[in-house]
């Protein structure tokens, strides 16, 4: 396996993000020319931190399924929008431009995000082409930035009635009033938004389940393929919902929700 830690530095900021990459080796004994999907993981943390519970343990599950994985430790407050979005664009461009070297299938770059990381992933899904500055700053064809799928775990989506306001305040700072409506992603879905897998728990009292429902409805209205799983039990921020991502206070173990990762793996395997 090729493990790297890459600096992600974009114009207009001194802040440097880190991209942790886990690229599986090919084998002469099996298939020396194999290419694999890659899942770029954006941990949650309300744009105030990036959670360990939604990072490497999830990456290991994807590696075990035969996919490559990468974790973007993107910039959080006091950095504001669009710094993290630009960092994610850089990461996707880097992976696609080096797809041959990394044995990546360039048509299967999936962006995964949990909670506020889900907002970042979904922001990228709706803005990768719409926000033309992303391609201009990297001096590349916008198609290099195309995500092929979104995988969203209990994502922050709406800035409306069901918002997790703290995430938007951390993301936007003093520009909150100016940009909150624009960052309500259910209103930004277009035909360029990639197919999406979402999961949420119905009792989530931090990021209400309506966030996923609103995004699913927007995708469905435009005939963008989408899959939504709502679990009737469980809270917010479950990670893998097992002992591996259990918090030090014991929180996060929810047996009924553990199936999400196998469902997501199956969804990736059937991406067209």
Q: If you had to describe this structure to a student in words, what would you say it looks like?
A:
- This protein is α/β, with parallel strands linked by helices and 272 residues long.
- Helix content is 30%, strand content 21%.
- The radius of gyration is 17 Å and the shape is globular.
SSE topology sketch:
Blueprint (H helix, E strand, L loop, with lengths): L1 E8 L6 E8 L12 E7 L13 H9 L3 E6 L9 H15 L1 H4 L1 E11 L1 H12 L5 H6 L10 E5 L11 H8 L3 H4 L16 E6 L8 H12 L4 E6 L27 H11 L3
Parallel strand pairs: 3-4, 3-5, 5-6, 6-7, 7-8
Antiparallel strand pairs: 1-2, 2-4
Question: Which descriptors apply to this entry?
Answer:
eight-stranded mixed sheet, globular, alpha/beta, 272 residues
Q: Give the strand content.
A: 15-25%
Mean pLDDT: 97
Succession of helices and strands: EEEHEHHEHHEHHEHEH
Number of alpha- plus pi-helical segments: 9
Brief overview, please?
The protein is of the alpha/beta class and 272 residues long. Helix content is 30%, strand content 21%.
